[in-house]
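Could you help me review a protein record that somebody else here produced? What it holds is a sequence and that sequence's fold in C-alpha cell form. I have pasted the whole thing underneath without changing anything:
=====
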Amino acid sequence: MIAVIGGGIVGTLIARELNKYVEDVWLFEAKTNFGMGVTKSNSAVLHGGYDDPPGSLRAQLCYKGNQLYTELQKELKFDLKRVGSHVVAIEDEETKYIYNLLKKAEKNGVKEVKIIEKMELLEMEPNINPKAKRSLFCEIAGIFDPWIVAMQAAKSVRVNGGRTLIKKRLVEVEKKNGKFLLKFQDKSEYFADLVINAAGLFADEVAKLFGDEVPEIFPVKGEYFLLSKDFKYVNSTIFPVPTGISKGCLVLPTVDGGYLVGPNANRVMSKFDTATTRDGLNEIREKGTKLVPNLNFRRHLVKTFAGLRPETEKKDFYIDVGKSGVIHASGIRSPGLTAAPAIAKYVVDYLIQEKLGIKLYPRENYIHEIDRTPHLVHIEREEWNKIIENDPNAGEMICHCNKVTKKEIIDAIKNGARTLDDIKFMTRASFGECQGGFCTAKILKILAEYTNRDPREITQNEDGSWIVNAKVRI
C-alpha cells in the first residue's frame, strides 16, 4: 500500500499520478474534505513560470505544470480560463524590472511573454492606472478553482480503486517489519509500504514523525477582498512590480465572474491564524487602487478572507527522499498550485522510479476522464429542460446568487458532501453576494434529509462549527 499524507492539490495529484500505476493508493486528509487548506485560500492563479529564479525547483516545475493543465482540465472537468496576466510598470524605475523579467523568462524557457506598450495596455485593460507605462504580458497565465482540482483528483483515485479518507490527522509513526505503521488522531491505524508526505503547512511536522528533517515551514498570511460581478474591473490578472517578499497585491477576475484584490504578505506565528486585520485590509485597498483606481470596495464588496502559505527561508520547494525512505513534498509555496501536476510527475517518475529504483508499470484499465456534474445554468436551455423532465430538482433554484439548483446540491451529497462548506466549494452555492444569507437554511434542510441527520449534527466545516444547536423549523 502507498500512502499519501495530505489532500491538498499537491497531495491529491500525487495520489492520482501514482494510481495510474498502482491501484492500492490511500489518500489521507486531516480536514473534512479535499483542498480545504492552503489550496482554497489564495489567488487561484495559473502562473506563467517567467518570474521564478532560474535553476530553482520552482522554475523547473512551474512552466511544466502550466502546460500540463491543458490535458488535466480535459480529464478532471474543471473550469480554467487562460485570461493572461500583466506585470505593470507604473513608475519609470519599474520599467527596468519588467525587461529583466523578460530575460528571466527566456532563461526559464517561457516563450509566451512580451512587452506591451502603454496604448495597447490601456486598450486591453481600460480601468488600469492611466499612469502605467507598459507591462510584461503572459498569454498562458490563467485562473481556476484549485479546490475543484483537488476534489476531482481525489474522486479519480476512488474511481480507479484507491481509497480516500478524511478527518485523518497523523499523530504517530512506527516502523514494523519493514513497513510504516501510521497512527491517526481518531485511533485508526494503517500499514504502508511507501509514504509520500504532502501535508502543506504541516509537512515539516509530519516529516519529524518519520525522523526526517526538512526546511522549517513558517506561515505567511495573505488577506483578500472579494468583489462582486456588478462591474467589470479587469479582463486579466494584473500584477504590480513585485517586492522581495511576494508577487505583490493583485487585481484579477475569478472564474465565476467576481474579482479578487490581494494579497499582502505578513509572517504570522500560528498555522491556524486566518483572521483578517484592519491594517492588512487597508494596505490591500491602497495597493489595489494604485493598479486599478476605480475599485469600489464599499459598493461591490462580497467578503474579505485570509489564507496562509507554507514559506521557508530558502523560498523554494523541497521535494526529496528522507533518510527514512519517505518522500517529502514540503515548502510548496507560490507557484505551488501551478506546479502541482509537474510535482506529481517529479515524485513518481524521478524520486520513486529513478532515485528509489522502484519500477512502475502503467495500468491498462486506468480511467483518465472523471465525470463532474455540470453547472446547469451554463448549458443550453433545451438540454436543461430535458434534464428537468427527468429530474424536477434540476428546475428548483436554491442559490439565486450563483444559480445553483437542488439537483446540483443533491449530486454533491452523493459525491461525499457532508458540511455546508462541502456544498459551497463543490457547487458554489452560498458563494455569491449574499454569502448564504438566503440559501443556507435550504441547504441545511437538504443536507439533513439526504444524509438522514438532525440539522444539529450538520456543521459549517470542522467538528464543532454547528449551525443550529436546538430544534428549529426549516
Notes: The chain has 13 helices and 23 strands. The CA atoms of residues 92 and 358 lie 54 Å apart. The first strand starts at residue 2 and ends at 5. The mean pLDDT is 96.
